[in-house]
Amino acid sequence: MVELDVAGVAQASHTGTLPPRDGVSLALRAAYDHALAHREGAVADYIPVLAEADPEAFGLSLVDVTGSVHDIGDSRVEFSIQSISKAFVYALLCDAVGHEQALATVGVNNTGLPFNSVVAIELNDGHPMNPMVNAGALATTALIPGDSPDERWETIHRGLSAFAGRTLDVDEVVFSSESATNQRNRAIARLLESYGRIRHDPDGVVEVYTRQCALLVDAHDLAVMGATLADGGVNPVTGERVVGAEVARDTLAVLAASGLYERSGEWLFEIGLPGKSGVAGGLVTIAPGKGAVGSYAPRLDTAGNSVRGQIAAAHLSRTLGLNVFASTPRTAPPVPEVAP
Q: What does the domain layout of the chain look like in residue ranges?
């Protein structure tokens, strides 16, 4: 995991609520300036069009559960959502089929292996293990209700747009580029089909999955989408209920366990929040009951996670008291007087 470089960052004096608006804006500016100095990592190039991203681009957005918005830098620069879509499609699946079926079919356990591992499937008797790796994401997309790939795509497109609070467009250039280079995902889908985990045409499943990954978002959209999960499934900007509160809870639990692939344990230890990264440089970090941070910075570490995004998230987790495992000592009760 990238060195987060947060030594000396002051802890917040509380962990219950966010500070007033000015305090959040100051914290966001400090996190942005702190992360901007870092130039480690490299832009993804295994999908040719992603290699064209500006390595210096950097935007942050924080949206809280009241709908208050804080943006800085390149927060409105669009990029493809990529693997971050996995979290929100999984939420749509849980909303459609329920807790038990999603758990039994897709799973929730970290593989400890890279996101596109074939070995993980074989080691687990064909089980995809969790929805944040490619095998689990393909299984999730295949389970979205619909009689055809077009119907499943419409459900996904409509649902992710509701999370963002606006109609999301597909980057057709990214979609074409990924379609020409997604042989591994097609192999994973056929392997899952051989184990009975995918019951639709695997090529159609891969096409829908590739299209969902090519949806265009910006850091602000990611913050709104994450804040919708933080607010129990209600979009705090539009007021629309997108998924149920139980679904939001389940999705955040999976993100905490597996959102940053094989680095998820280190992420949770250092930052203490559910999060999800994408190879285009997006990262969403969610503080349940408080809000979410969306970031865009295309330089990635070796696991495919945004370097600046991680550093900014760590800074905000500490300065705003977001870590779900942190607490402040309660006031000690008075010592009772002993009767003489």
A: 21-79+218-239+260-319, 83-213
